[in-house]
Every structure is written in structure tokens, then in C-alpha cells.
Structures
1.
Amino acid sequence: MKTRMILLSLCACFCIQMRAQWGYGVKAGVVYSKQSVGYDMDIDSKWGLAAGGIVTYSLSDHFDLQGELYYANRGYKITIYTDMGAEKAHDWVFSYHYINMPLLLKCFPTGKGFYLLAGPEPEYLADMKNTIKNWKPEEPVDDTEWKEGHTRWGCSLVGGIGAIMNNGIFVDLRYNYGLTSALKDGKSKNRSLELSVGYMF
């Protein structure tokens, strides 16, 4: 009986310890993005949304390993002017729907609260769309060739800061620096700022 009690106690302690090392959460926020195209063009940033899930593993009091799976809408805008020249007529909006899978190292300099994070972010381009606001062409635009010119898989480098409260609510600000081109032929790399709020269970 004593042996069974000891084994059960050890098993319970092990399970509690394992549960303390793992954490799960959700997040949602906004994305402010554009692309670095490598040639002269009047490109503006656009706003998008992001949302997804988080898994963390505590390595120590000062370091966590964090994996994520989340959706982010990135892209850019091009200003179209009138035939006369200077007057702005339309916004040509390029919207990219990414599934992101970052693996991040989180550092807590003080052991809790404030943190720094960095790591690689593989990403999959699930869908894309380009629209011209207030533009009514006589015939629909066939963008099949435009879509086929993009790469589906890419990778970015992520760095950021954040803070988490004792109740599990956190705020996270990060910069996403594209390492690979979004185009098969060309140098068009994503750049984005992402601000998220979330909750760790």
C-alpha cells in the first residue's frame, strides 16, 4: 500500500510539474504591412487582421519556447492617379492571407511581466486578392497569372516586445521582416508591424 501511495504521489507531482511547464493561449490583433518591391513604385501600407493560437514551454524562470499557429492579412496599396496627373483617383489594394507558424524564444529579463521575443516564422500563402477601390471596368480582371507568380511558402524573421499580467492577459508588439520573396521572379518581401492582445490559460 505504501509503495502504491508513493508511486501515485510521484506521478501526481510529475503531472503537476509538466502542466506548469506548458501553457496555452489565444491572441488577436491588427497588422500594418507593406512590401519592399526592389524597384521604384509608390507603395503604401495597409491594415489587416490577425488571430490564432499559442503554445508555450517554460525552459526556466527567464526563458520560454513559444510556438504559434495564426492567420494574418498582409499586403500593400498602390495609388492610382487620374490621367491629368496629380489628383488621386483610386487605391489598388493587394491583400495576402497567410497562415503563420513562428517558433520564438521569449526572454523575461526580470523573471515575469515584461518580455522580449525573437525567432523564425515559416508562412504559407493560403489565398490572395487585388482590388481597385471605386474602379468599374467594363470587363472583369483575370488575375490567375498574377496569383501563379507568387510563392506559396516563405519565411520571415520576427522580433518584438510584450508584457503579460498575473491574470494571463498580455499585449504583444512585433516586427516581421520577410527573408524570402513573395514573387517567384522578383524581390518583393513582406514587412509588417503586428499589435496583438491575448490570454494565456
Note: The first strand starts at residue 22 and ends at 36.
2.
Amino acid sequence: MTVLRKVNWGMGMLIAVLATGSLSADAPDIAKARYLWSQSPHGAMLERILPRVIEPGQLPEPKSEGARLAAQYCIQCHYLPNPQMHTAANWEKTVERMVWRMQGKGNMGRLMKEMMDNVKAPPEEDLATLTRYLQKHGQKEIDPRHPALATTAGQMFSIACSQCHALPDPHRHTAREWPRVVQRMKQHMSWGNVVVGASELRTNPVLKTEEIVRFLQRNARQEPSIQKP
């Protein structure tokens, strides 16, 4: 993050924070966390951890306590994660690892402690609520024994999608919905600098978006039938 960009972002956040009184005792935790992040000397690194794909109001059950805690604690260190990044089975150990880092015990020694200086780790009660929330709305993964995964298109799907999250069940969307979802994922992949099928980043098989879309459409959820009067 350039100095100018950091200042602009920090000032923008400060204006928003002051406009809502969020530096006062009754301030929203999310605004304060974002402002502190914008002032961090490690802001550029924090910005690259996750893409900005979801805002607090777009979380599942956005008014629930679990959604509030996700915004309060997760955004202290990086952009808000979508609960569908991980399966329910993986969220517990992921949250445990994140809390360990929030306590300054990560794998970067003194730098980790410095980065976590203003970060608040959740108490046990909040931790349990947050974990249950993320597990409830976690990714519904495709059955690893699904025969379509053995096809060339299935292998492309596995390589592409597993770079960022658990492999989604194609039944999550209809055939009509999947092209838009895949296009959005391509934008996230480009931001994250992961393999997107470019010739200089070849995989075996080579990733082809159109083949991945067709794979998902062939195994998609059926469109709801319209009942005639």
C-alpha cells in the first residue's frame, strides 16, 4: 500500500468513523478495527491476505451474533472471509489457528507480536459462537468420490477451485447461475495471483474456464419447476 493510498484510506475511514461517532465508547468495533488496520505499517501485507469479496451486511444471517463476531474479530487482520471458504469440518481448526496468531504466537516471531499489538483475540464464549456460525454456513463440499472428478474437466475444476477454498458441490447453483459465479471467481483468482489458465502458468490438464463451467453445469442443481395454474 503506498503512503498516499494509506493516508487516503486512513482519512476516509477516519471521516466515516467520526461521522458515526465510532471512536467513542459505544463505537462499532468494525469501524475501529478497519481504521487501525489502515494505519498499520503492515497494511500492504494485510491487504493481500484475502480479497475483498464480502461486506458484513452480505454475510449469512447478517444480524446474528455470529456475523457480528466475524466482522469484529476477522477484519482486524484482513478482509472479511466468506464462511464458504472452508467446510464445517475445517473451520474449527482454522479458527483455532487464527486465534493463535491473534495472540501473537504465529510463525513470524517478533514480527507477529508487533502485527498483533492492537488485535483483540476473542474470549472463549465469543470463540464458540463464532466457530458455530462459520461451521453452520461453511462450504458444502463435493463428494470426493464423485465419478465426475476423475474426468479431465473434473480435474480442471479441482485444480482451479482448491487453490482458494474447499471444492464446492455443483448443486450449490443452477446451470444458469454457474457462469456468473465462475466469472466472479476468476476475478478473485486474478487478484490473488493464483493459476488461472495462463500459458506461462500451465497445469496438467491446462485450466480452461469454459470446460470448468460445463462441468459445473452438467452437475448443477435443477432449476425449480414452475407450477402452471
Note: Residues 1-27 have pLDDT under 50 and may be disordered.
3.
Amino acid sequence: MNYDYFFIGLSFSASVFSTFLCLVLLGLKLAKNTCDLAVKKAIVILISFFAISIFFYSTTFFEAFSLVRLSYIKELNFQSALLMPILFYHFIFELTRLKKADKFYYFNYVTCITIGLSLYFFQTKQGNPHAGIHFPVQGFPSFWVAKEAILLASMYNVIYLTLSLYRLIRYRKNISNYSSNEEQDSLLWLYPIFVLGFLLLPGSIVFYVVPVVKQHLFFGQLLPNGLFMFFAISLCYNVFCENFALGTEDILEETITANKLKKTKEKELFINKDTFEQYIAEKKPFLNPQLKITDLLYDLMTNRSYLSQFINTTYKMNFSQYINHCRYQEYLRLQASLGATKKTQEDMILASGFRSYESFKRTQDSFLEREGADRRISS
């Protein structure tokens, strides 16, 4: 018995069936119809990504074991290799939109399909469609075939992964001035997925540069399949649990303006510090664990940019830090007033507006560190 083939087949099966299970789970979530439209769109894109991934790994498996010898299998496999990074970028795009005008351009798909069709027609033109891809080295088409096809697909992956990572970094720079619930809105869970992606998707460049790696059972077959299995499961888990919050700041602001400020002729941008602090003390908006800066705009008669700038300038904190600071002060007040009652620490943390103990602990550590620094400066 050839154990190499056994382990290769097992690794391909694990990646394909785990991805298929992820696809089914997300399909069931979509069928329940409990998500809003923006979340549904993100789920549909991720389901499409999983479907193309299953096709890619299945056709790669057929090629590796020479189970199917059809001329178009290689072309479709190559097409799916180009589609995967675009679908992943489209998915990240939907999660990281901050502006209503930020539109995804579908020419990305058109370009991808055009490259795939061009490869197929160039191969057919050679008059030997059943022999696989065997172009002469010279000439324009040769860049898209044989080993160069692998290199092109890998470059495609690197470009779109880099664009996706750039969007995530830009999004995280802005979200702290928008949401008080950074652990859900910050998409921090995507960073390990990007690590897997950069190890996995452009990996065929390594095969191109160091061909011996491709022949290695562990590095060439088992490791890539295992990485993709964890890649798919991590994506599915976080999307299934909706470990994110979709909604662009100007869309939310426009909705509030349209619904609540119809009778208001002019919005007052100026914010008085005393009035602002009185509003925070009386209304206690920070008790809402899902509070966003746009939730305060109607009462304060201002816009998002001015309010964010006011908080940064006045309190030397971003919006998230300021709201969590207010929650911690509320926690200290509850702790002092409740004393030895049956109210537990966890109850007080939740009653103060914190979404979790971890969020409270981060705020507490930051508060104590800031307090210690102020003491050192005063002494």
C-alpha cells in the first residue's frame, strides 16, 4: 500500500469536506432569514468563496491522481485559482466599508474571467486540447501557461490579499472613533486568517521557485491542505457567530438625519464641554453595549466628525476609550453604592455597559495605568 497517496487523499478530503460543511452551515444561517441585508450579502459572498474553493481543491485532487483527463479541467482549475482571491477581497470589502460611496468594482471579476477564457482559447488554437498545456516558451501566450500559469495565479493572490489587508488596517484605524464595542467591530480575528492566507494562497510561488517543495509529502500536500482547512473553519465560525458589525458611518448618520431631524432647520455643530458632560451623566448612553458615535448625534445636534474631534481634543481619548472610561466610572459608582449586596462583580460589569469581562479588564488596566502616570507627573 502506498501510504503517500493515502495521506494525500486524506488531506484533500479533509480540506474539501470541512469547507463543504462550512458552506452548509452558512447556507442554513442564510435560510433562517434572521440576518439583515448587509450581513446576508457578506454571507453569500463567503458561500461563493467556499464553493469555488471546493471546486479548486477537487480538480487539483483529480489532477494529482490523474482521475480525470479532460482538457478543460486545467482551465477551470486555473479560473477558480483566480476567482478565490477576488471573492475573498470582495468579502473583506463588505466587512470594512466605512463610506456609503465606497463601492466594489465588478470589473475585478470581468478581468479574472477574461484571463481564464483567453487561456482556454489560446490552448484550443494550438490544436491539441487533450494534451494539456504545452505552449512554446516564446510569445505572449506562454506567460499564461505551464509553470507561468501557476506564477500568474500566485501573483493574483498576493495582489488581492495585500489589497484586503490594506482595507482591514485602514478600517481598524477609523473604527475606534466610531464604535464603543471594539472587540466586535474591530475585526481583530481576521489577522490570524490573513497569516494563514499569506502562507497558503500565494504558496505556489514557492513551488515555482523551489520545485522540490511541491514533491514533498508534508510541505507540498499535507501542510497546504491543513492550512486551508483551518482557514475555512476560522472564517465560517466568525461569520456564523456574526463576530462583526456591518454599517457605514455616513449611512447611519443619514438615516438618523432623515428620521429624527426632519423639523430641524439647522444643525448646531458647537459642543459645550459642560453641556456634553451633563448629557453623558444624565442620559448615560454608555450603558448601551452596542453604542456607536452616530447614536449621539441627534441629541447633541452635531455630526460624527465634529463629535469625534471634540472627544479627541478635550479628553485625549478616542470615542471607544472615552465611552469605556465612562463605563468604568459607572462600575466604580455601583461598587461603592452596592457594597456588600448580592450583586456580583460580573453583574456590575454588565450593568455598567461593558459587553464582556475582557473589555472591562482592558479598560481597568488602561485606567490604572493612566492614573499611575498622572500621580508620577504630579509628584
Note: The CA atoms of residues 252 and 294 lie 7 Å apart.
4.
Amino acid sequence: MEKPFAKPITHDNASANAQMVAPAASAARTGTLACDVQVSSDTNHTTDTPRTVIRGESPVEERNKSQAALTDWLNVSFPFHPENNNPKDFFISFSEATNRVFGGMTDQERGIHGWKHSFKFDHGCVIFAYGGQNNTAFLSLPGEGCSFISNWQSFATYLKDQLRSKITRWDGAVDDFLGIHSVDLAVELYKQGGFKQGGRNPKPKQHGNWITEDDLGRTFEVGNRKNGKLIRIYEKGKKLGDPSNPWVRWEVEFHDKDRVIPFDVLLHPGVYVAGSYPCMSWVSGHALRIRTVKEQDRITYERSVQVASTAYGALLNVMLQREGSAERVVERLKRQAIPKRLAFTDHYLRTQGNSDDF
């Protein structure tokens, strides 16, 4: 006898304020998902099922702009207090922001990555989760989900301003449908130091058959997810099942470890892919880096001000009364020096400029 499923949250029942039905046994849901959602450390999500439509255009239509980058994975987290928020409210706002392209949302009856409750949308393999994790929620759009977003400017505004989210993972990809920038070229660039940053060459990995040729495609990977950044170069055409297709994808993966990923990546993915490694300048004539220095400097400065206020705020208050002006207080207290904690970032920003351009 077939077991019942939990009632999904749909546009109709959400609008009608219908209550969610209690989840059914998880065994009943096994095998019912249209695709496997790998939102953590699985590097095999690139071997997805062939899609007729890619970012709304066919590969043939894309050939003339094969160096145009795109967002191919997006994870965000945002404040979500169960006593003040509920999945139904999120579903309504998210659906409105995305023109309801993802359909309904169904309870998966299990947690994910430390969040106690998780839901899956009908389309795009999009996942929403909440519960625990310091009163935050989790939203993941893999490549399939990203392909549904038609207006990244509007969606970025929703994520930033309405959800007050932060990006925890972003994948930027560039497709070379002619295979000019091949996997073999990536290996040669690696040997020449094209992926080297900070004086060290990140460790490489190879996946697939590198001894004899086959039709399954190869992947060359540089970097480590634990360090917050890696790049995969793989024979996408072959992995999708066409052994004669020269399509190669270069895919950069950023995590928010020791860096703040700006929402600008959603609006100008090409410049961030181009700035990820020295050898990626072919992607865009204008390149940006996601700099950790600015955020480190900002946090250190704000913390130093807080410490100074606690330690000397009362004294400053008295000094203002006795000295008669803020200028006289500053003159008496300032020193021609820079705090050690700010020395590096201050010097870097002064000498390199207050810009991500390079």
C-alpha cells in the first residue's frame, strides 16, 4: 500500500493560509526526487543530465559569446527566527521574487547541513532549510535552479535587502563551446604557474581517464574547498553524453571562508571569474578579485574602535568638557603611528588602491 506524502506548500494553499500537513515517513519519499541535490562538498554535480535549454539559449546560440560567464551555483544564509518566521511566509516572498517559476515547496522530513527542517521546490532542485544554526535559514540554488532566474538584478536585491542574506557559496562558470581553452591547456597553464597565488601553486587533482582516450570526459581541478576557492575545468560536452562535442567548462567555486562574497558576483560574474586566477584573464578584459583585505580591515577597525570606546570613552567625555573642542582632544591623544592589527591592511589599501581592479 502506497504511503501518503506530506502536503506540499503551493501557491494556492499558501495564499489560502492552509496549514501544512504533518510530514509522512521519509521512506515514502525515497526515489521521488527529480534530481539529487548536492549542496555541500560533492564535486560531481557537474555531471548533470543533458538539458535542451541552457540559460534560456541553446549551445548553438551561445557559441558567439562562449566567454560570457554565468552563475552556476548559489548558497545563501539569512536570519530566520522560528518564533517570528515560518516556511509559508518565506515561500510566498520567494515565489513573488522569482515569478513563481519554482512551483510548490515540499517538506523533505529531514534536516540538512545542521538545519533541522528542509524543503524542496518542485523545479530547479532548489532547497530551503531552517531550524537551529543560530536562528538562520539556508537557501540553495544549484545549476538547475540558477537557470530559472531571468532577472539577477531583481533577485540580488531580494536576497540582500528583503532576506538580509549573505552568500556562502557561489560558482561562476564560463563555457568554451569550441574547446579552444581545453583541459590540456589548463594543465599547461598550471605547469607555467597560471594558477599560482601568494607564491604557491595550489594542489591539482585529475578525474576521469588520463591514460587512454574515452568518451566520458576528463576533469582538472585546482585548489581546495576547505580554503574557500577552487576551479574545475572539465569536458562538459563529453560528460553530457556527446563524445564529439568540444564544449569545455571552466568553473570557479567560492566559499565565504576568510572572504566576503559580494552580491555583485550575481550581476557581473565574468569579472569575478576572470579575477579568480592569473590565467583567467581571457574570460574578461576587466577583472575583479574578491578581496579579503577590505573585510579584514573593516572588522579590525570597528573592533578597535569598540575596544577604545570601552577603555577610554569616559575619559574622552571628560576631556571634551575640559578641552573645549574635539580638535583639541584629538591633538592631545593622536600619535603618528598605526595599530599593529591594522598595519598590514592599511598599507595594502594605501599602496594597492581602494579598488578591486587589477
Note: The beta strands are 69-79, 105-107, 117-121, 127-130, 136-141, 166-176, 204-207, 219-224, 229-234, 248-255.
